[in-house]
Amino acid sequence: MKPIISEETRSDCIELIANLVKFPSVNQEALDNAPFGKAIDDALTYILAFCEEIGMKTYKDHMGYYGFAEYGRGEDLFVVLCHLDVVPADDEKKWTSPPFKAVIRDGNIYGRGTADDKGPSCIALYALKTLIDQGYTFTKRVRFVFGTDEESLWRDMKRYVEIEEPATMGIVPDSSFPLTYAEKKLLNVIIKGPGSDQLALDCGGAFNVVPGEVTSSLTQAEEVYQALLSQGITADKSGNEITVYGKSVHSAKADKGDNAVMNLLAGIDKVYDHPLVHYLVENIGHDPLAVAIFKGQMKDDVTGNLTLNVAKVIINESYSEAHLDLRMPVKLTKDFLVKPLYDSIERAGLVGEEYDYLDSIYIDKDSDFIQKLLDVYRNHTGDMSEPVTSGGATFARTMPNCVAYGAKLPDLPSTEHQIDEHMSLSNINLALDIYTEALYRLTTVEGID
Ligand SMILES: [Zn+2]
Questions:
Q1: 66 partner at 20 to 30 Å CA-CA among 102, 192, 236, 320?
Q2: What is the number of alpha carbons within 13 Å of residue 165 lying toward its C-beta?
């Protein structure tokens, strides 16, 4: 018989999310055996204690990089890849309720981590708890892996894959339904160049964000301002300060944004003479597909175009650098793609250095595993949409046969990393139904059809 989810289970799940949100698990200074700080370590200890309580065997990495909890028996290891770290709350005053206190209003639960990724992790955990409580017999070991560095450099999973057992298959509840079967290659490059005694800049931010607004103080502000206006770029000037606008989006969708840093540089390049600025304007400009560098569009029929985001530019007296984030099609090789990039950087007398690289994933969407996951989602929602590909990166790419699967419903807005991050209670309920049935069908004797 299919598992039944009680109202009590549903409210307990919400309570677990709320308890986890209380830990301000933002990357902080390392302590002994807590490489990402105390709050992240406390959240990890808390969730492992909960797993122990519901009957799972738990293990915490002695260096504190990750933990996992396991239930069931069998050769195969079905992994659920979660993460407990969150991005900073930014301006806490702009939140309607405090970011690290979960509050329910208007049918949503609000708080940092409710959508990314504490909420989805707890829902998946309650799906397993439902099966454990109702006495099903497992055909696989189900292992929840709790990462702690997903929002930064994935040092948690890099250590996990070095020393722990990989998944036979698994899901990552850190995205949207239906599921993501391909994720582009992700490359971060830092271009280094000379400093300047004329021009000082420090604008933009994290690699994964297309800058939406930048303000800079410039010695020749009036000239730059006029150069911007003459190119039709929206800007404000106050004294020596110039503010330039764009549209901020995630780097994975750089072609849907408008890069404010590049808009500013278009004006600066007309007034100042700096090789890094000139390189960026000439070779990238307002084109997130970077056709000038690659001599055409780099794309495939699975994941579409390569996109490039100039996330940050720094120029001071001693050095200059630009931070680039590239999302690259799964079917084109890394070597093929990076050569023209590094060649163009070198030709400009600058130096390109790889800062981070994550390989792509591309899983057969006709496999039995994927079809079962899809079928469960479709049965519960009636939504027949096809699995998707993404420029984003989830832990799915750290292990074989793993795919991002929920927990957000595709028609709801994405609030991760934003002020007033939340998850709707109806989304939570539906995701709990879906995860419970997916685990039932994929990991229990009773669920096999
Ligand atoms: Zn996440």
A1: 102
A2: 17
What is the distance in A from the centroid of ligand 1 to the CA of 90?
A: 17
All residue ranges of the chain with pLDDT < 50 are none
Q: Classify the C-alpha dihedral 365-371-372-377 as positive or negative.
A: positive
Q: How far is the CA of 346 from the centre of ligand 1 (A)?
A: 35
Which two structure tokens, joined as six digits, stand for 25? 């698990």
Rounded distance from Cα 436 to ligand 1 centre (Å):
21
How far is 211 from 324, CA to CA, in rounded Å?
12
pLDDT tens by residue, 156-205: 999 999 999 999 999 999 999 999 999 999 999 999 999 999 999 999 99
Token digits of residue 229: 């206006």
- Spatial separation of the C-alpha atoms in residues 135 and 142, rounded to whole Å: 15
136 CA distance to ligand 1 centroid (A)?
Answer: 30
CA 8–ligand 1 middle distance (angstroms): 27
pLDDT at 65: 98
**CATH architecture of the domain covering 7-184+361-443:** 3-Layer(aba) Sandwich (3.40)
What are the sequence ranges of the domains in the chain?
7-184+361-443, 185-358
pLDDT at position 354, please? 97
Helix (H) or strand (E) holding 109: strand 108-110
Residues by chain with Cβ below 5 Å of ion ligand 1: 116-117, 174
Taking the centre of ligand 1 as the mean of its atom positions, its distance from the CA of residue 117, in whole angstroms, is 5
| Residue 84 Cα to ligand 1 middle (Å) | 9
In the reported structure, the alpha carbon of residue 150 is separated from the centroid of ligand 1 by a whole-number distance in angstroms of: 7
Burial annotation 163-201 (CB, 10 A radius, 16+ → b, else e): ebeebbbbbbbbbbbbbbbbbbbbbbbbbebeebeebbb
Residue 85 Cα to ligand 1 middle (Å) = 8
* 87 CA to centre of ligand 1 in angstroms: 9
CATH ID of 185-358, from 3.40.190.10, 3.30.70.360, 3.40.50.720, 3.40.228.10: 3.30.70.360
